[in-house]
Design goal:
The structure holds two protein chains of two kinds.
Chain A lengths: L3 H23 L10 H6 L24 E9 L5 E3 L6 H5 L5 E7 L6 E11 L8 H5 L5 E4 L14 E2 L1 H4 E3 H7 L1 H41 L1
Parallel strand pairs in A: 1-7
Antiparallel strand pairs in A: 1-2, 1-5, 3-4, 4-6
Helix pairs in contact in A: 6-7
Chain B lengths: L9 H14 L4 E3 L8 E3 L4 H10 L5 E10 L4 E9 L7 E8 L4 E3 L8 H12 L2 E3 L46 H4 L20 H9 L14 E6 L2 E2 L4 E2 L1 E7 L2 E8 L7 H7 L5 H6 L6 H16 L5 H29 L5 H21 L8 E2 L2 E2 L6 E2 L2 E2 H24 L3 H7 L7 H6 L5 H4 L7 H4 L20 H25 L20 E9 L2 E9 L7 E5 L1 H5 L3 H5 L4 H11 L3 H5 L1
Helix pairs in contact in B: 8-9, 9-10, 9-16, 9-19, 10-11, 11-16, 16-19
The chains are: A alpha+beta, B alpha+beta.
Chain lengths: ~220, ~600
């Protein structure tokens, strides 16, 4: 019969409408403004309203989410800070839109480059958030951020991030990407342990050789 | 699975090689350069060779036409890739032309699908296609100076031939490129071109070229008028313009005008290193970035001979098929928008897509600009948890329950709807022979009853391990294109279910050590995938350096538009909008 298709389709719309109220009742008080609300609203069980009322509420971003790089520094015990960046320039070389500018610093006396950038610029208008800099940095010194609310009124000055703006402590990184941080720290610890073991082995070998030599000489 | 890919396709190629070279003695040579394959054809023999290819050897489908500027050898090469819709490996033929005066006979009478692509080569390289019915610039405008893809052409913000640029490190002081290219001084015009006294001649000639005959003469006398739909029009899916000649309300002719979103993707690609191109491919068809990555990775892996670990292959296919579902959801939703059912169907359709994007975001780091694949594997593995759930559990649940349910609901919501049916059935009919001739691809081709799908026709990755059907429909109208998309989503969920069942639980996702400067041996490759919108091909030429010498994208949306004018003739204006919606274009890919 003509019209049954339309009626069936409208049935779907009505189901959606009714379900939005049913779900509100079923998950009373849990669907909005709570930590788990998104999982209820957009999870497999949810059949009601799906949308998020941005900016009143925000979807939690997953750990791998990437938006604009930042630079890491370590807080030392004496209150000073150390940059992880050695200004090796790999991030600037791998950057597809070429939005990274690094000024390498050099020793005022000898003129030789020292492994710390004088300044570090990222033009975030050009940055395409590909994440290559973080992916290929051998020192885990540059990472992708989670902060995506960067709108400003002026694009010429405000959108060129310098080192002061880019610098963030390692603790911040550990808080936004705990799994990655843990994996990197474990790998680093293993690397150090490996190196130490190698060194020890080499020293032991050397000592053994010396002892042998001494023994031979004594004979 | 189709049974035709198992029967040997190589013999046909061998026959082709023997007969082509023997038959056109002295006019056709095998391409013997290191890393190259195919045939080099003398320019004047091209139409004859194409005729033999199409009629005798079964290469009835012209996939891609492009050019390469070999500036050191002082010639421009036009490269044609042809395929058999019966399945099997493709063939490529090349014509070498003088750089100063490149002229080649057109292939439009033999393969009408060459129309836009030849115009693009003309636009980018200045190659004259002798006998082309409408040889105008297609992506650039009249006042554009030079041929941008020639190696000696430089863009306004030119810094160096190839990235990385020296100024970035170690000296670098930041600089905005606008500072060097102030507005008003950043363009140059062709000699003799006066911008102040310029009237858009192209438009006049375009309007002239439209066929405006009023055929019937029996009914009311109506004036023929020309109407511009777009470039700023909500129904054109972006900045796209359709110039229509109308007789009353019936379309007598239609010319698409494009290029408003052109950014010379391919030139950027030639400045980039191989790896740097990967995130740029995301921006082609920005609804399907995963499968764009896939195609480019395949093209470069062919050159490198890189192996992809088992687990990575499975994840690649999962991502590509999820992309297909999300793209078709989008396409159907917005087809309904074009039909006048504003937003409700679109929102129901993209609701499930949202969960697919969640998978992408948690895995690749971005919802749409995924940049997920690398040469020899993937950027990273699945995360442990996704939205507080175990990732494997989440995805399995998605492909077993949520997506099939969403597809069924969409089906129930729309398929039987009488308004949808009356607006779609019999509209924009594309017969199978015409679909092949016009190089239509993807759902557009399969809705015309041609079972051509690269996943089986020229199987890549590990698609041969999965059990799925190639969906076709017989009528070739808008309604069938809609139905093919629904069917394909169902098949895609089937593939995804098999992936989640068979995927090795542990394993490498990248072979070798990740490198930012990959070594790619010299040669050419044509890597292609069955994108949701059709065949997406990357023609990459390497000279062994860090940057591709040539990087061409055979964009399905662009080539599919070739047939738009034909489809719309005889229909009403409102139908043109629907037909365009049923082709499913993304302007990021059309204009590149």
């Amino acid at each position: 019969m003509y019209g049954t298709g339309i009626l069936k389709g409208m049935g779907v719309t009505i189901r959606h409408l009714v379900n939005s109220f049913v779900d509100d009742m079923r998950f009373l008080g849990q669907r909005y403004y709570s930590d788990s609300s998104m999982n209820i609203r957009q999870g497999t069980e949810g059949r009601g309203v799906f949308t998020v009322q941005y900016p009143d509420e925000k979807l939690p971003v997953p750990e791998q989410f990437r938006f604009i790089p930042f630079l890491l520094y370590e807080n030392n015990k004496d209150g000073s800070t150390t940059d992880r960046c050695t200004s090796c320039g790999i991030c600037a070389k791998v950057c597809p839109p070429q939005c990274i500018w690094i000024e390498r610093s050099s020793d005022p006396d000898t003129g030789r480059p020292i492994p710390e950038p004088t300044n570090f610029y990222i033009d975030i208008d050009i940055c395409m958030n590909c994440g290559y800099c973080a992916e290929y940095c051998p020192f885990d010194a540059i990472k992708m951020d989670h902060d995506y609310e960067l709108a400003s009124y002026d694009r010429t000055e405000a959108h060129i991030f310098d080192k002061a703006r880019l610098d963030k402590p390692v603790e911040y990184y550990a808080s936004i990407r705990p799994t990655d941080y843990l994996a990197e720290e474990t790998a680093r610890a293993e690397e150090i342990a490996k190196k130490a073991a190698k060194k020890e082995a080499a020293a032991a070998k050397k000592a053994a050789a010396a002892a042998k030599k001494a023994a031979a000489e004594a004979n | 699975m189709s049974d035709k890919d198992s029967s040997g396709t190589l013999p046909v190629n061998e026959v082709a090689s023997d007969s082509l070279v023997a038959r056109f003695d002295g006019e056709v040579h095998s391409d013997t350069r290191e890393g190259y394959e195919g045939y080099i054809v003398a320019a004047n023999m091209l139409p004859e060779v194409a005729n033999v290819l199409r009629d005798e050897l079964g290469y009835d489908y012209l996939s891609s036409v492009t050019g390469v500027d070999y500036i050191d050898e002082n010639h421009i090469e036009v490269v044609y890739h042809a395929d058999q819709t019966a399945g099997g490996k493709g063939i490529n033929i090349k014509v070498q032309l003088d750089r100063e005066n490149p002229v080649v006979p057109t292939l439009v009478p033999i393969y009408p699908g060459a129309d836009f692509q030849e115009r693009e080569v003309f636009d980018m390289y200045g190659v004259q296609f002798d006998g082309h019915p409408n040889l105008r610039r297609i992506l650039m405008w009249d006042g554009f100076h030079g041929y941008p893809l020639r190696k000696d052409w430089k863009e306004a913000y030119y810094e160096e031939d190839v990235k990385p640029f020296d100024s970035r490190w170690p000296g670098g002081g930041v600089k905005r490129s606008e500072a060097d290219n102030p507005y008003g001084k950043n363009v140059s015009y062709p000699p003799g071109f006066d911008i102040n006294n310029w009237t858009p001649e192209t438009d006049d000639s375009l309007y002239e070229s439209l066929q405006k005959t009023t055929s019937n003469g029996k009914s009311l006398h109506t004036d023929s008028i020309v109407v511009n739909i777009g470039p700023q029009h909500p129904s054109t899916h972006g900045v796209f313009r359709m110039v229509v000649a109308l007789d009353g309300e019936t379309i007598t002719d239609l010319q698409p005008v494009m290029g408003y979103l052109h950014r010379n993707h391919e030139k950027i690609g030639e400045r980039n290193t191989f790896l740097q191109n990967m995130p740029y491919t995301d921006r082609l068809d920005y609804l399907c970035s995963m499968s764009n990555n896939f195609g480019y990775a395949l093209a470069v892996e062919q050159l490198m001979g890189a192996d992809v670990p088992e687990r990575a292959e499975y994840i690649r296919i999962l991502m590509a098929e999820l992309t297909r579902i999300s793209n078709h959801m989008w396409a159907i939703g917005f087809l309904l928008n074009d039909l006048g059912a504003f937003q409700t169907p679109a929102l129901y359709a993209i609701r499930a897509r949202e969960l697919i994007l969640d998978v992408f975001e948690a895995t690749a780091g971005s919802r749409m600009m995924c940049n997920y694949m690398r040469f020899g594997g993937l950027a990273r593995d699945f995360p442990d948890t996704l939205r507080g759930e175990d990732t494997v559990q989440f995805i399995t649940d998605l492909v077993e329950n949520t997506l099939p349910k969403a597809i069924d609901e969409l089906d129930q919501f729309l398929t039987a709807n009488e308004i949808v049916r009356s607006r779609c059935i019999g509209v924009g009919v594309l017969p199978p022979d015409k679909a092949i001739a016009y190089s239509a691809a993807g759902p557009l081709l399969r809705a015309s009853g041609v079972p051509y799908d690269l996943r089986t026709a020229d199987s890549y990755s590990i698609y041969d391990r999965f059990d799925f059907d190639i969906c076709t429909r017989p009528n070739g109208d808008v309604y069938d294109r809609y139905l093919v998309r629904v069917d394909e989503m169902r098949e895609s969920t089937r593939i995804c279910q098999q992936v989640m069942r068979d995927i090795p639980a542990e394993g490498e996702i990248f072979s070798g050590k990740p490198q930012y400067n990959v070594r790619v041996p010299a040669g050419e490759s044509y890597g292609r995938v069955e994108n949701p919108k059709g065949e997406l091909g990357y023609y990459v030429v390497s000279t062994g350096k860090a940057n591709p010498y040539r990087y061409h994208v055979r964009a399905p949306s662009f080539v599919n538009l070739t047939v738009l004018g034909e489809l719309c003739k005889g229909h009403k204006v409102a139908d043109a909008v629907v037909i365009l919606g049923s082709i499913d274009i993304v302007l990021g890919e059309v204009d590149r």
